[in-house]
Amino acid sequence: MTEFFGKLSVLFLVSVTTLSFYGLIGFDGGNSADWALLHDSYFWSILGFSLKQAVLSALLSVLLAWPVARALYYSPKLPFKAGFLSLCLLCFIIPTLVLITGLVVLLGRSGLLIDGLPESWSLYGLHGILIAHVYLNLPFAVRALYQQMNNIPDTSWKLAAQLKLSRWQRLRFVELASLRATFLRMFGFIAVLCFNSFGVVLALGGGPQATTLEVAMYQALKYDFNIPEVLALAWVQFAITSLLYVIVSRWGSANWLSVETVSRRWVPEASPLMKLWNALLYGTMWCILLLPMLALIPGISEMNWKTFNAWSIAQPALVTLLAALISALLALALSYGSLIPLRQAAMAGKGRRQLTYEWLGMHTLLAPAMVLSVGLYVFLLRRIDLDHWGMLFVVLLNAVVITPFATQHLRPRLLQFDQQYYRLADSLKLTGWARLKVEYPWIKSTLWFSFSLVLLFAMGDVAVFAIFGNDDWVTLPWLIYRLAGTYRMADASLASAVLLIMCAMIVLYFERSRQHAGN
Amino acid sequence: MLEIDHLEVRWKEVVLKYNFTVDVGEILTIQGRSGVGKTTLLNAIAGFEAVDQGDIRWDGRSIVPLKVTQRPVSMLFQEHNLFEHLSVWQNLQFGLVGDDIEQRIRAAAEVLEVSDQLDKSPLKLSGGQRQRIAILRTLLRPEPIVLLDEPFAELDATTRLIANDWVRETAKATNKTVLLITHQDEDVARVGDRNLLLS
What we know:
The structure holds 2 protein chains of 2 kinds.
Chain A: H1 2-25, H2 41-74, H3 81-93, H4 96-107, H5 126-150, H6 154-162, H7 167-195, H8 199-204, H9 213-222, H10 227-250, H11 272-294, H12 296-301, H13 311-347, H14 351-362, H15 369-380, H16 386-427, H17 432-459, H18 463-468, H19 476-485, H20 489-517
Helix pairs in contact in A: 1-13, 1-15, 2-5, 2-7, 2-11, 3-5, 3-20, 4-11, 4-19, 4-20, 5-7, 7-10, 9-10, 10-15, 13-14, 13-16, 13-17, 15-16, 16-17, 17-20, 19-20
Chain B: E1 2-11, E2 14-22, E3 27-31, H1 38-46, E4 53-58, E5 61-62, E6 73-76, H2 88-92, H3 101-111, H4 127-140, E7 145-149, H5 157-173, E8 177-181, H6 185-191, E9 194-197
Helix pairs in contact in B: 3-4, 4-5
């Protein structure tokens, strides 16, 4: 039974990708990719922009994150540090449309902070996209760099002090030596994330000068219904993402969740001037990270409550929560299931088979949500009434896309269980349900924090909904996009605040679960 | 009867060979230098090691084709005998059957001097206490073949004698066929019916 469930889970994940690629190949409807697009300057313009904004976003995020991580590390007594780290997590997973609303209020055409900016300032275009991407990814890099700095052994600092190394030598031989690999990994991961960014570019981009492949795909599908062009763009997007992913994978994985400090270590004492600088930087970061969230408040204060229909936001909020809950639960089941054959291979010492199952379970990380959605959309177009069943595919595809994130956390915990207890469990003849009852207390904390993580990702989805969604089941992120697009900033602010509060509550739960899980 | 019939098991690059029988209800102690293949033998009988050649028969029927969960074997490992995320009492629920099982557990726990530990987490127990809990469960399970891999290694001299006697008495009372690995001659003399020296 468990074996069957395991194979079924893997089969489901592989089927979705296969059907999607079947759609992309365009075997069945005469729709094949329009490769003539490669000779079009429009294509090279959007490809160039996609890469440029991804590289710049990654570079800025990592470079700006470093001094913040140093401030956290060298000034261990900064107040509310745990809260700051939770805020960093919230910023990383904040639904992009919430951030966009905040940024428009602050830096839009009649923004609160544009007084000192030049006349030609516009949030729309490369500037805005970079600001949004840096806001989303800088906190991610802060957490990762800070964690890596915490891994520097006491002995290195003690040795450096004993050898009377200068500040520059300590930076070069201890700090940079420890962070070099993390810098590369962070840069790579953020570049991939930004290359696949959809919501930010959809809202703040536009025109050939500020459009990415993902947005171009969406526009070609939804506005022009030019399937051959969509297919060509999807293949290019997939090829480049795969290439980037392979390169980044060679640099190692980014573990950014566990940032809690270990018991107080011996670190070089910062000078009073350095401490002041760290405190100023830390305070400024608090302000910068909180500003787009606080910017929702003036927007909400402009609401016309007399004409306000609470249901207009409550319904999308419920739809978002319900759809994300189902996606997250399905993702957990798929993740657990797809790990069953992997664990069996690991226990049997069949390394190659284990690697194969590992790849099968994680392969949806390679294909961006937009590529999978477009492929499946093209495949299903003539087979199913997508206006009617679209929401089902929003839920299913989101589940498939977020499954690897759950797997990343469940896999080590379950492999650890097997390593420690599989012989005992086998010897006690524990199979099926009885085995699950023993495993559950072991993975409970990891399971719940994986659940909250994938729930957050599913709640912020814009890409899959953009393709499969419809007006009957509008989600909160999509409602925010529509409201902001029609300059109803007060309503957009309120909807954003509701979504933000929902996410913040889950982040709080997530941080607590993570601490219990020891991850 | 348990028949280990010209059994060959590959362990790393070495082929280990075994050939002996154990009568029903007999307690066979096994000794030998480290690395000679004592644990590998028990693992092969329990189904954790693949058999290269030969056969393992119980009651005249080969158990080699059976999965671990289907073999008539109850095994005590050198370590990791308790799920540490569950309480001792929850750990004792696994594999034990019968209406009077609670009574038997409590009686055995009394003899083995662990009756105060039943509601605790294994993490709060000493190595010796954990080992006695694990011995208790392994012997009370219904499977007719009992494999004990250094069961008394973590016990002090007094507790060791108590555990020695309890294992022998329980095994004899329930007619278990026991294979017991030990480095102590005292265990051989006090618990075993026969000693097998592997070389």
